[in-house]
Amino acid sequence: MTAEARPVVPEPRWGGRSLTAARAAAVLIALIAAVTVAYATQGQPVVVTQAVITGILTGGVYGLVAMGLTLIFGVLDIVNFAHGAFLALAMFVTFGLVAALGVHPYAALAVSVPLLFALGWVLQYGLLNRAMGGPLQNQLLITLGISLLIENALLLFLGANPRSAPLPGDRALPVLGAVADTSRVLAFAAALALAGALWLILTRTRVGTAIRAVAADPRGAEHVGVDVRRIYALTFALGTACAGAAGTLVAPFATIEPTTGQLFTIVAFVVVVLGGMGNVPGALAGGLVIGLTEQLGGVFLPGQSPMLPVFVVFVLALFLRPQGLFGGNG
Fold first, then answer.
1. Which residues pair with 256 in a beta bridge?
2. Cα 57 versus chain centre, distance
């Protein structure tokens, strides 16, 4: 662990709020231009409208997943390869509650979020904390090992058969000539609410102040009485809880399999890099951008993998602005 970690909230380190606003405006203009071109070139405007709506709704959930990942990186300075496995675990918890007890899928948040929070705390405090300060590859291998352990345990005990946890009364809501499933709308709204709650914790509470202090200078925080290892555990737990919440939110409209989290992990890494490593609000913005990119890519490149345009944006970001749209200086 280095003495300085990346920021988890928008600090002056960004290089000025005006620059950040300018980049955000440039991204917004690019998205508007892409949508305009799609409307002009496609013979069915409703297809474009559907892509935009689905992209926004999906992007909100992507942002929540990425917020947990970037929070962990911003404070602990490690990349958590187990993030997607935690999400898959939450999906199975949701499925189990729905199948066994008949609870509403989104009521399972009351179980999945605390459960994943506790799991994240135990893993960080009892396992990962022992590797903090050592070689970075040790921490990466531990998170990779946790991921493999969770996925293979799910395969061993629950099997590889796809499952689902449908939302009761789920129906298509008309929006500007297109449709939006109730489950996706509720997931989007809940993701934004949870993202706002996380933001308030980081910026308006003593715990959030301690987390930001540790992110900025662990040694300095320790000198003023902050229990750094406890903050590491708390941060990892919060990030894991975000993955747990996202897993429950997508369970009604995503296929539940032990390896489902792998795709979300890939997307989350792309979002984190796009929004700026360690930048929580940037992750939410990046999630919306990637959600729209994924869906608009299907409009411009029908028959191709929806991940193709996502990776094109990812590669361009690495070449043109490797510190992310909202990270770094200048």
1. 163
2. 13
CA torsion 58→59→65→67, rounded to 10°? -160
CB burial of 88-113 (b: ≥16 within 10 Å; e: otherwise) equals bbbbbbbbbbbeeeebebbebbebbb
Domain 44-320: assigned CATH number: 1.10.3470
- Between vectors from CA 226 to CA 222 and to CA 227, what angle results, nearest 5°? 90
Per-residue pLDDT of 206-235, as tens digits, reads 999 999 999 999 999 999 999 999 999 999
Instruction: Please state the pTM of the whole predicted model.
Output: 0.89
The one-letter amino acid at 77: D
pLDDT tens per residue, range 268-314? 999 998 888 888 888 999 999 999 999 998 888 887 888 888 888 88
- Give domain limits for the chain: 44-320
Q: Is 10 exposed, middle or buried (0-12, 13-18, 19+ CB in 10 A)?
A: middle
